[in-house]
Amino acid sequence: MGEDASLFPEEKLLNAAPLVEDETDELEDPEFVLDSLPGEAESRAAPGSSCPGKERSVDKRKQRSAARARIQASLLRRDLSHLDQLHEEKDLFIQKTRGELRACRQRMELLTRQQEGVLAEMAAERAANNTAAVGRLEAASLRLCLELENERDLQAKMTAVLQESESAMWHIEIREGQLEDARESAREEAEAAGRCLRERAAEQLRRETGASGKAEWSRLLRVRRSVRLQKEHGLRHQKLVEDAQKNHRKAVKFLKASLVRIRERERKEELEAREHTRRRMDAVLALKNSISANRETLRKFQAWGQAKAELAERKAQAEKEAILAQGGDAFKHLCHQRRRQELEAQTRAFQEEQKLRKHEIVSRILKEEAEEDRRKRQPAPPRPPPGRPSLRDQTWSYVAAVCAGRSTEAPTHPRSLSPDAVAGPLPSQLVKAMSSESVQGHGGSLGWEETLAQPEIPGLWKEDYEPYQVPKEDVDRKPVGGTKMDKDILAHTVQRLRSRVTCRQVASGREFRGCPFNSRPRLIHFKDFDIGKVYKKKITLISTSYTISYCKLVGVEQSLRDFIHVAFEPPGPMSAGMSCEALVTFKPMINKDLEGNISFLAQTGEFSVPLKCSTKKCSLSLDKELIDFGSCVVGETTSRTVTLTNVGGLGTKFKFLLASESCEMDTSPSLLKISSIYTYEDTGFYDKITTSFSEQRMAGNESSPTDVPSQKESGKLDTKGQEEGRPSEGVALTTTVTMLPNEEQTEFSLGEITEGEIRPFSSIRVPVVFTPMVPGTVSTRFKAVFKDQQCQTLYFKVVGVAIDLPVWVPKPNVDLKICMYDRLYQDSVLIHTRSKAALRLKFEVCKELRGHIKLLPKTGYIQALSSYSVQLKFLPRHSLPEDAGKYFDKESRVLEAPMTIRVADQIKPVGFTVHAVVTTSDLELRPPGLDFGYCTVYEAVRTHVSLCNHSLLPQEFGFVGLPKFVDIQPNDGFGTILPLETLQLDVIFQPTKAREYNFELICKSEINRCFKLSCQAVGVHPPLELSHYQIKFAATSLYDTSVATLYIINSHLSTTSLMHSVPRIGSGDTPPVGPTSFEFLLPPGSPVTISPSVGTVLPGKRCLVRVAFRPVLPTELIHQEALQALTKDAEARSSRKDTATQRKDQRRQSFSVLRLQNQDRLLRASTSQPPELQKEDLTSSSQEYQAAQAALTRSFQGKFDKFVVPCVVASGDTKDRKGTEPLSFSPHNTLYLELWCPAVAPSIVVVSDKGKTVADFGDIAVGHRGIKKVSVQNVSPEDLDLEYSVLNPHGPFVLLNPISKLPSGETQVLELSFSPRESILAQETLDVITKRGTLSLALVGTGVASVITCSIEGGILNMGYVIARESVSSGFKLQNNSPLPIKFSVQLDSLSTRSRDQNRLPQFLASPAQRTEVVGTQNYSGQSVFSVVPVEGVMEPGRAQDFTVTFSPDHESLYFSDRLQVVLFEKKISHQILLKGAAREHMMFVEGGDPLDVPVESLTAIPALDPKRREGDPQPGPPSPEAEELKPILVTLDYVQLDMDVPAPPATRELQVGCIRTTQLSPKKTIEFSLDSIASLQHKGFTIEPSKGIVERGQTKTISISWVPPVDFDPDHPLTVSALLQLRGDVKETYTVLFVAQVVTGP
Q: Using the 8-state DSSP alphabet, how is residue 1121 labeled?
């Protein structure tokens, strides 16, 4: 209520006076003129007074009081209109608010009814056990509750707003009642002013009647002229309409014909479309029928193939059984048979292909011969150079060489071809040659081109062709080398061609960068080539650019041009995703690896496709580096095989022998060899070889990890072979049986194949035989050597164990891996026997482990030459470490249990060992118990719990049966814990209501073990709650501000806990219902502000809280940076000073003395500088501080802070506390607000003025403008769009050049202007807004008013009376009281042009009320009457300027006037001074009385003679004394009679008689005046003193006139008396004074 009561204070209403004063000037000025006339008449008609100065001061005070009264009246009218406007606006707002509140209440009632209906339906559905409907109704009920709560909040807001509006409305009505009297008086004044305006309007109407007559006549003339023009325009329009109609009829005719043609064409197109659709439908149906028929055919073929496959499989199975029955190797036989079939199939396919190629070559040759005959009949084209044969000649020579049996290598030079070869062989010979040639490369492609040669330009090969000759006149037109423009164009084109970029490709604002085409394949690789053969590969180029692209072949590298030819036809424009093909032909001439690129050119640049040609190489590898035979009984023979694989394209000779032997490979075979050749043409053969090889190698590595170096070496060779291998060549294997006559027989020996030749892309299996002689372990190392020097020697190792027992265990070590206590593990142990009789077996476990390990059955029989399986069960108990004894290692937890198998009739038992690592399954929770303490229902408490796995195995765990108020993260308390790992789990407790909690958390492992964790807590329901408990600010730049809002809600309305939960701590008492206070406790030094931080919330209300985050740099960091900069500067200055001192001292001192002095100086500088720097006062406004701040801002890398702000709560109001006594805040009712505050580097920074963000304009004069430039730079990696906050449109600050976009890394200049309109300290903030942050610029400036005082009071400078053609001067001063220098200029209205006065009536024709001009009579000579010096200049602060005004009239007039204006800074008018003066031809003057003429001279001067003389004709002769000019003076006296019983004072007026001081010589220094008829005047009540007298030069005398009505005076008839006033000086002047006296009853 206190705020509403002061809505319209009187001071605020009165301070805005100028706004109303300007609007009412036009109404107030006429009243001022009319009111001032009676006062002047009284001052001129009152004689006998001796104080003229006092009368003038009284008049001035009256004028001031009247002006103040008018100003107050205008302010009052302004206030009343403002109150009426506010009253209407408030009334409208209240009505609108009441309507919205009514609608809100209706919505609340509707929601309440819907909620009741939903509750009823929910109860019915719940009774019907309809869970789905109950869930849906619960969701609807929750939504209705939320909507109802929102409507209640809206109703509370609208009620508060309505109450505030009604309170403001009451204050407005009270204020209107207070101003009701003033309103009535203002209304009366307005009516009086209206009457005056109506009178003036009537007068104006009379004046304008005549003007309206003339205007009506002019209007009639204009009407007649316009009627005539309209008729002419109508005739022209009618003619145009007729022409348009004719043209329209013609156009309609042509349009109809065009429409007929268009419809006919559309009909034909429709028929064609239908026909096309019909044909397509027929084709689709035919295709469908064909597909169904093909499906039936395929189904028949599939059935036939399946039957054939089954038949072949049965046949193969029968052959296998027959071979096995005969004791042969069935697998080897099948393999040979399969290979033979494949070879036959490949041979047939090759023969068919050769036939097809033969026919194709013959057809091509015949076609070419026919073309040759046709070409011979045509005119012969120009012959090619003789040194270079044509492509056809090369082809014929090559074919002839093939037929003659020579080498297929291409000739090194075309000139080596013989004429016979050029002529070509017979067709039969060609067919035979081509049938025996194997053509490499792409199927169907040949070594020569199919297309026939044609000239590039048609007609070029004609006989009558003549080259074009350039005319001489065209050659001589341009200078040698071209013009300058041609040279520039040529240079620019050459530069673009060199850069291989013809144009840039830009689409959707993005420029294409990268390779414009992708190649498939990416690498063109010709493997294992033969010299003389031709290889071809096709590549596909796919366009990947944004728009249409072009592609052009540039060529291949210089080193590949003799071997590589690219056939590429430019495809033209290609869209993105389209492709074109190029054919690459490789004809090797040398046996050497080649590498290079094929270059293409697109409009965006050059790109290339890599090319590689590799020769045939040998790549050999072994599939095994370790062969483990295992256990073998002495006397038996076991064999294994090792495979030697060649994945290269070159074959070589090999030899297997012991690693200790040495051997040199030679070309002559010295051993007995048995050869068998196998050729493979299957494309998948290489894949089968490598797959089997890798599997066997992995098996070999798992069997024994020995001989690692040989494995790595073999792996390298294998990898090399895989890279260079190609499974399309034939493989030739040579199997050799090697006899070793001189070598001793060992346990290990090689099989039949020990040496031979391995073909490309083939493999050889070498058998290794193990024949143990004595029991024990045997190992031997073998190697494979090769004839090719580039192939490395391969090594492999053979290991075997010789035993002499009939019963053995293949796996003597049974590894049970890692086992847990109290868990059962089982495994089977396989036992083999070599005995040909059944044996009895007994299985025994050592007595220490009989409680943990069992072998079932304990006794068994194994049959002859068979195997037996025994079951092993292992159930480790916790007593295993004590029971096992020496078999268990407690540190490593490894169990090695020996098991024994006793065989009947055999002394030595068979043993095997059980290996196991036994570990526990325990999980440990630390700490064993949790106490969450006090926790509010609006927040959650998080505690860390460690889960440790003591087991050596990973275990899955999970917390099951969690209460609703507990959550465990991560993964909701489920997961897998690794061996010996400790996991940190977060236990989150969020109470649902206020009570004490005691519960247990159960963690179960995958083996169903339970581990418990006891927890306790106290739930707290605080009296207040926050709308948000976590605020995540956006990434905020340094010195920018991010704002978020939240509410503090007091929902504690009742102490009854039956309806809703009430605030309490645990099970404690409920606090009383009432106002509750809060306080946010911010951490010190945080960049966060909360307002209000302290407050009180009433029950059922909420309080809005504003949270602002403004990241700033720490002050200590800025001080440190500034001190470092100062230290560097001081060191630099000291070093420069020491350098200069050293130069001076080097001439006087020795080197040693100089070194000591330097050390001394450095020590003094280092000890003296830090204290000096620390003593400097680095304030925030110092340059060093701001420079350091700007440097740190630019190098800021970002920062993330998280703050938790506690909000303590206490019962009671903050206003009720006594003094500074704090409220009793409970620590358990504390609310916590979490703030995430990411700070980033600013995207734009200020680089001008050392990075200052404060633009201080300083002191600027009012009405002037100061401009300041601020340079901003974009330091972010992307271009930014700039937006700006809105400055105060009526404020002094303006942004002159708003920049819309700031590119990355660039700097732009913002121009800011400050134009104060009043004396004020202005401050605003300009926010430069980008998507990455905001830069705030503080704008500060002081507007200084130009305060100037004038020594002239009242604004009028009267120069008095002056003799015509003489001058008089007067001075005044202007004082500069402002702190700024002021530039001034002085202007006279008479010297300025005013276009606004051109349409006004002359002054002497206007009424006195309309005479507002201040420029009066001027000189006849054209020179100004008044002059001022100085005209312009500058006034310093606190100084005064003297001005001199000179009055120089050139004729007699009483109405010389002008206005002097003092203009500051060529804009503002500071003072206006009215200059007045009068001029006489003679030295005497009389003033006073009532004005009888206008203040402007007429065009002619009429002498004031007697009426008879003026009316009659002028009489000749000299003038008589009676004919001198008589000047009238009117003196009006008003006798005020208020009371008839009390005598009133006499009416008084004054006349001034003066003598002008002059420089002219005159016989008389004084003037005399006398007034006749004194006696008659006294008889009629007039008293005149003095009636005569003498006036000195430069002096004036006052004639006082007073009047008292005589006894016989008639009040109804004014008294009129005249008298003559004579003045005698250098001339004689006579004035007729007319006295008019009357009695009035009021002022």
A: H
Interval 921-931 mean pLDDT? 91
**What distance in Å separates the CA atoms of residue 1588 and residue 1639, rounded to the nearest whole number?**
28
Which residues, listed in sequence order, are joined to residue 1442 by a DSSP beta bridge?
1373
Distance of CA 1516 to the CA centre of its chain: 105
111 three-class SS: helix
Q: Is the pLDDT confidence value at 895 over 80?
A: yes
Token pair recorded at residue 104: 């809100």
Tens digits of residue pLDDT in 1240-1274: 888 888 888 777 788 888 888 887 888 999 988 88
| pLDDT of residue 1030 exceeding 80 | yes
Mean residue pLDDT of the chain comes to 77
Q: Determine if the peptide bond prior to 1092 is cis (ω within 30°).
A: yes
Report residue 459 as tokens. Answer: 């007609």
1550 within 8 A of 49, measured Cβ to Cβ: yes
Collect all residues with Cβ–Cβ distance below 8 Å to 782 and sequence separation of at least 6.
656, 657, 658, 659, 748, 750, 768, 795, 796, 797, 798
Give helix 427-435 / helix 391-404 axis angle, nearest 10°: 70
Q: Which of 1564, 1562, 1565, 1571 is nearest to 1486 (CA)?
A: 1571
Q: What b/e sequence results for 1272-1284 when a residue is b if at least 16 CB atoms lie within 10 Å of its CB, and e otherwise?
A: bbbbbeeebebee
Write down the H helix ranges in 1234-1361. none
| Cross-strand pairs, 1529 | 1633
Lowest pLDDT segment from 404-418, 493-507, 768-782, 900-914: 404-418
> How many other β-carbons are positioned within 10 Å of the β-carbon of residue 97?
18
Residue 408, token pair as written in the block: 């297929």
Helix axis angle, 180-326 to 52-127, nearest 10°:
40
| Paired tokens of 956 | 């899955």
Task: Give yes or no for a contact between 1552 and 1487, defined as CB atoms under 8 angstroms apart.
Answer: yes
What is the pTM assigned to this prediction? 0.39
User: pLDDT tens digits for 1544-1592?
Assistant: 788 899 989 999 888 777 777 888 899 888 888 888 888 888 888 989 8
C-alpha dist (Å) from residue 415 to 385, 387, 588, 606 = 12, 7, 19, 36
Q: What is the structure's pLDDT at 1356?
A: 87
Q: What is each CA distance from 213 to 209, 549, 1406, in whole angstroms?
A: 6, 83, 22
What pLDDT is recorded for position 1524? 59
Q: Give the C-alpha separation, 83 to 71, whole Å.
A: 18
Residue 1214 · residue 1094 · CB < 8 Å: yes
Condensed to tens digits (0 to 9), the pLDDT of residues 707-763 reads 433 343 333 333 334 333 333 333 333 333 333 333 344 688 888 788 888 888 889
Structure tokens given for 892: 């490593």
Distance of CA 389 to the CA centre of its chain: 68
**Cis peptide leading into 1586, omega within 30 of 0?**
yes
Which residue carries 């077996």 as its tokens?
841
Cα 51 to Cα 159: distance, rounded to the nearest angstrom:
71
Q: What is the pLDDT of residues 1283-1309, one digit of tens each?
A: 898 888 888 999 988 888 889 888 889
Give the pair of three-digit tokens for residue 847. 């007595």
Residue 607 makes CB contacts below 8 A (sequence gap 6+) with 515, 516, 517, 599, 600
The C-alpha atoms of residue 196 and residue 1235 are separated, in whole angstroms, by 72
**pLDDT digits 0-9 by tens, 1451-1461:** 888 888 889 88
Note the pLDDT of residue 46. Answer: 40
Burial profile 1164-1199: b = 16 or more Cβ within 10 angstroms, e = fewer: ebeeebeeebeeeebeeeeebbbbbbbbbbeebeee
Q: 1386, 1362, 1556: which is closest to 1477 by C-alpha?
A: 1362
DSSP track, 309-327: HHHHHHHHHHHHHHHHHHT
